[in-house]
Design goal:
The protein is 69% helix and 3% strand. With 433 residues, the chain is mostly helical.
Length: 433
Amino acid sequence: MQISGKSNFFLELDWLLILIYLALVTIGWFTIYATTFSSEQVALINLTTYHGKQLLWILFSFLLIILLFSIEAAFYERFSSILYIISLGLLIGLFAFGKTINGQTAWYSFGGFSLQPSEFVKVTTALAVAKIMGDNLFDIKKTSDLRNVLLVLAIPFVLILIQPDFGSAIIYFSFIFVLLRMGLSIRLFLSLLVMTLLFISTIKFGVGATLLVSLLLLGIFFYYAYKRQRMFFRKYWPFAIGSVLFILFLVFSSNLVYKKALKPHHQDRLSLWLRMEKDPNKIRSLKRSFGFNNDQSIKTIASGGFFGKGFLDGDRTNGKFVPEQHTDYIFSTIGEEFGFLGSSIVVILFVLLILRILQKAESQRSKFSRVYGYGVASVFFVHFAINIGMVLDLLPTVGIPLPFFSYGGSSLWGFTILLFIFIKLDANKANEF
């Protein structure tokens, strides 16, 4: 193992990324402290409190960073497949030795501490995808090559989904951005977008209305295609028939999935998010149950105004109005105590982090490092966008942490490893030929 090479390693480090990381982790810890603050317990270091445990995990994160920097950059590409297989083994082991919390068998328990393997599988999956796509012979337009990548993504997705942990599983859709950047046809992305819109429309407006509008829009498209090319239907009739059948299948299957596959509480959450319920009494009931977190979160953020109420002065945060505020809903604390101004600074920091990773990814000499960088940026973006969208009630509630903010050692370590492997690869690019 080495920290230095042909060039000065520490001079090659991207200190901007490191400073953004330190800023996010620091603000995140103070925010966790605010969510668990009480006048009876003000000690910063107390392992019986959430902020005390988080501080310990942050200190261990610095040791992790030193370890990651000490390992040769080539190790991550050379052993990516082995690391991926080991991480899958940890996921499978949960079904025999895992601890069930809130209906999810997603943790290994060690005394008073728990470890969530899914947070680390994101890293190994990003490495495995980079390994496959980093091969000079890889061609995303070849069915066999694309199938291999999708299989690498599908295995952890399914294993996490049956825990069941839909929030962690949905993150694997973030790799669609990597596939698109590496040359995947835009048609697949548009197909996924259409599928999502048809699913939402079917739930919101019903089968009849969705079919009517969809087929009408398709008919308009066919009309203009025919006007431009008189031989359109004779030449592209398989496409025309396939499009109609595709829409029919999606609409009817969406209705079936919603009514038969989704559990009642999932249906209620979607119903509340899509504003489908008209009965005021039922709406109030849903907001007191499935929508309680979102309702309280929005009120908490709104109460902060532009400048916020001040650190530790958030009365709704101190009053524990928002359940799980130290984890998935931690952004509501930022909104209340630091206001729109503080929230904007946090958002800007995340945007800078993601854009900087993308910028550095584009400059990589190694295709493996470049693809891995795209994967890192995509995972951070989806976590950031979905978590804040969920807290603001713009997206349905799913269990997705805000990177470097939400309480949890597994989450913090997972994101730290994900980022600093890339920083290590980037610092090493001067030694690549």
